[in-house]
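User: Sequence in, structure out. Go.
Assistant: Echoing your sequence, followed by the structure tokens.
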Amino acid sequence: MNAAEQATSIEFASKIATVVHLFKSELPDLRVDLKPWTNDSDTRSLVDPDSVDIGLHFPGLSRLFHCRSFLVQIRFYDDVDSCTKRVIGIEVGGYDHRGKQWTLSTIEQWSFAGAVVPEGAAGDRLKHCCRQVFDVFSHSLEESA
């Protein structure tokens, strides 16, 4: 679901802003889109309501990442016992004019898959950002207030 729509409290909005800052501090050329999904019925049927989705766009094609844009999907589950959302994984897709070129999933092996994948050091930078996202959401919203 669009990050802008998931920012339903000050604490959660602050965590989303922190995630944006993490990616921008590692890759300053990125432009952020907190509403990467269009608001039509076909798209809405595909959107995961338990995710925060952020679009990140380079000013042009990145030769290091072999894409022009990232779609970062932070997947959550609701921990009903503590009334919090916990991160279960992050999926990042790299896109260009041909569509999705690669995917990084933090579930299981943290490996890239696709037609082309980011260069070694660039991929490591992206994995570093994902590790930091886990840190941002590792504390419950009540603990961060």
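User: And one key feature?
Assistant: The two ends are 24 Å apart (CA to CA).
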